[in-house]
Amino acid sequence: MAIMGTFAFEEDFLAAAEKLQSSGFDNISLLSPVPLAEAQKVLGLGKSAVRRFSLAGAIIGALAGFALAAGTALVFVLPTSGRAIITIPPFLIITYEMTILFGVLFTLLGFHVVSDLPAWRDRPYLPAANIDRFVVVVEGAAGEQAARAEAIIRQAGAEEIHHVEEDQ
Amino acid sequence: MFDHGQPSYAEVNKDILSVMLETGPRYWMLLGTTMSVAVIFFFMPWFYQLIVGVGAAGMSRNAYWGTYLSNFIFWIGLSHSGTLLSAILHITNSPWRKSVYRSAEAMTLFSLMTAALFVMVHLGRVWFVHWSFPIPNQMGLWPNFRSPLMFDVMAITTYLTASSIFIYMGSVPDFAAVRDASTGTRRRLYTIFSFGWRGTAREWHTLGWAYTFFAVFVIPLAVSVHSIVSWDFALSIVPGLHHTIFAPYFVCGAIYSGTAGIVTVMYCLRKFLNFERYIGQVHLDNLGKLLLALSLIWSYINMLELFSSWYGGSSFELEALKFKLTGFYAPLYWEMILFCAFVPLLMFFRKFRWSWNKMLLISILINIGMLTERFIIVATSQPRKFLPNAFGFYFPSWIEISITIGSFAIFATMFLIFIKWVPAISIYEVKETLKPLRRDA
Amino acid sequence: MKWGNDLSTFVEKFRQYLKPGYYDEFDYHWTMTIDLDRCTGCEACVVACQAENNLPIVGEKRYAQNREIKWIRIERYWEGEYPDVKMGFIPMLCQHCDAAPCEIACPVFATYHNQDGLNTQIYNRCIGTRTCAVYCPYEVRYFNWFTYTWDEPLEQQLNPDVTVREKGVMEKCTFCIQRIRLAKDNAKDDDRRRVRDGEVVPACVQSCPTEAMAFGDSNDPEAKVSKMMKNPRGYTVLEELNTTPSIVYLKKAHAES
Ligand code: SF4
Ligand code: SF4
After folding, report:
1. Which of A76, B114, B367, B437 has its Cα between 20 and 30 A from that of B45?
2. ipTM of the assembly?
3. Where are the domains of chain A?
4. Atom of ligand 1 nearest to the CA of C135
5. H-state helical runs in A43-87
């Protein structure tokens, strides 16, 4: 079962989040209409792993770019303009473009992996969270745990509290 | 930032989404017009040209490249401001970017597509265009990566991919807002578009990082794209094209015309979509200052180009220079100088920078100037190459002129479709510039 | 074992391909010399090329638009003021540059340098970007703006050894590659390793009434062209561009007045 509490103000929302975090709930989501650095801090999100994807993509792209240009020049040797078959300067341009292409594509991949999107199942969500409300979602809490979470949320000044059944 | 008072969070959603969700007859009429203009002026002449051959255009042995290529550069140039500016302003954390950047990026995307169309129109045998892509084939034959055109293919596909990803990822939270505000098929569609976005701290965090990386990748990319386009010309040994200054010249010109394009688009958004509340004086003022700076750089580089041709003293260069400055196309050349170097100086005055109508006029003049700039590059250098016996003259045929007109309609069509599919202003980023939802605010 | 060999040949090839200037090692180096002192500007070569290579007749209108296709043209230059004028001719055709600016321009390798030192044009591969023509400083590339047809019975005159090009394709002088091909085949049939000097005669050279043109393999020091090239009057057009053309012109000698 998931419990959702909506808040109209950032402070209350953050307070609830901190409280929940410190009392040991580890499956909480903090929904907000705009990115909040504080909320990310509460969850302890530092440097994102996306950057590793970007770096890997850029390196792979650079190698692939040069390999593409040089390799295709070698498999079918067609001399032009008295240049070397493997002409470094123009191939560096191809390398440059491919670095960026792969960097971007891998960053995109990294985004999907790290953020766990696209979502393949319905997740607890309130449309108000995309307008002007902050929503705390506690998932996977049952029985007494759930009651405790609800109390914390209510105490922090939640406007409304919703319970949703999660389809497992 | 807001000339007409701060909207509330809910109002932002409502204002911006209503443009998407409510469609009046005026929109359909406009869309119908631009579409038919695109078909009649662009696709029909192109079809005719496909049947008879490129000879339908006015090109000849004097100029193997004509308006198609100059328009290609123009549209690529126009695409240069959106994504690039958006990325730079994102990295430097400028808040005024937030209500302008979505449409600016859309402009990038659509002008890039229009530019790509011009390549197709230009080609003699467009039905074999796939040979210029590195696709494995049974012939074992690959494209020539030493060719400047191949740099172009790689750069433009990369740019197209990167800028579509950039604009798409920036819109994911807004797609979620559309999903929440709609029903039926549209809702299902936007559920897919938004990847099931909820706006959790983790999602925002990842998006923020990914977005910054996109921005970091896009900036050098955009610079490289127009440098590469300039090398199509500069890597030839044709007098008047073989200049080292070409890469910075083109990049600067591209950003210049792109920024002017943004002003034009901003004006239309404000006027026709009632975004007065979100696009205000600050944006106009900042864009005006940027345009002014760019115009000064552009004039400087232009002077440098003339100077180096003259100072180099090679008779071929001098001949090309003479043709450019005093030949048949001299009036066009001086028109360009007037529109791109002198008219923008008016923006030194706040009176001009602060008036939407005046800025609209200036921005349109700049882009007319830039369109002719590109035309002059192709039309005055090629007819004056090396052998006097082959000197000639190039004038576009009516097909080229009509296709040029049609391309604007194509761009407008794509833009009109865009405003119904993607929120034209970034909802969540506008909210970021509002007063935060705090008790103490 | 095999892999090791493959790798070492690969490395060796890689090294070899890194250095420019492979064109010193052509099998043949087809070269033409044109003696301008002998050229009378009769344009027999132009007609011969037209006939040999299936060049289309574009018609008056398109000629006026500068869309003619003439792989070899006679350029006419005037020197001095009337009445003291001198007229000079220079036949201009593809120079088969060893460092051809046109070749790097092609994104699909429709034009490249072959082992005979020829700048080749592969019509079937051409996609019509026309970049090569823009890059060529001699302006000797011609584009098929339309598909040209031959009215009956003129199609009977078409040379079966040469393709007929369609619209959207670039073309230019090939040094009559079909004749080179034939000569090489004959040499092979006769068990000769090389083509003999004078065995290949391009149409334009063949038709020249004053024998202003000579054609041959300049790798062979005994060939007629090699001797002609040593003539002190020899020069190449637009030498300052470093395109290293394969056509050597012999300057017109003027009597000192
Ligand atoms: S003369 Fe022109 S077409 Fe011929 S090889 Fe040289 S650059 Fe190429
Ligand atoms: S060598 Fe052959 S193709 Fe070239 S100009 Fe002479 S006749 Fe024409």
Report:
1. B367
2. 0.90
3. 2-46+122-164, 50-115
4. 7
5. 50-75
